């Protein structure tokens, strides 16, 4: 699985987890930060320090925006749209 697809799958997996468990927004952020591994965990430590973000003040929506900006480029979304278009034609 490509790195971009892994990042997208991680977000989808977190969304599924949050639909299963009815966490309040604050708890969602705590869970997802706990589930970060490797380079993503290092990235998050840097982001929260540079932007002076407290996990209690961050929403799941805001985290997704930051995560997608870092790991899912516009090119990735364009290629996925192209794949979908080609599936419909094929």
What secondary-structure arrangement, pairings included, does this model have?
Layout: H1 3-20, H2 25-35, H3 38-50, H4 60-71, H5 74-89
What does this structure look like?
The chain contains 5 helices and no strands. It is mainly alpha-helical and about 90 residues long. The chain has one domain (about 5-90). The model has no long low-confidence stretch (mean pLDDT about 80).
* Low-pLDDT stretches: none
Helix/strand/pairing class, anyone?
Answer: mainly alpha
Radius of gyration: 15 Å
Whole-Å distance between the termini?
23 Å
Strand content: under 5%
CA-based shape: globular
Give me the count of strands.
Answer: 0
- Give the helix tally: 5
What series of H and E elements makes up the topology?
HHHHH
Helix amount: over 70%
Main sheet?
A: none
Q: What count of domains describes the coordinates?
A: 1
Mean pLDDT: 81
Oligomeric state of shown chains: single chain
List keywords for this structure.
90 residues; mainly alpha; 5 helices; 0% strand; globular
In short:
With 90 residues, the chain is mostly helical. It has five helices and no strands. The chain starts with a helix and ends with a helix.
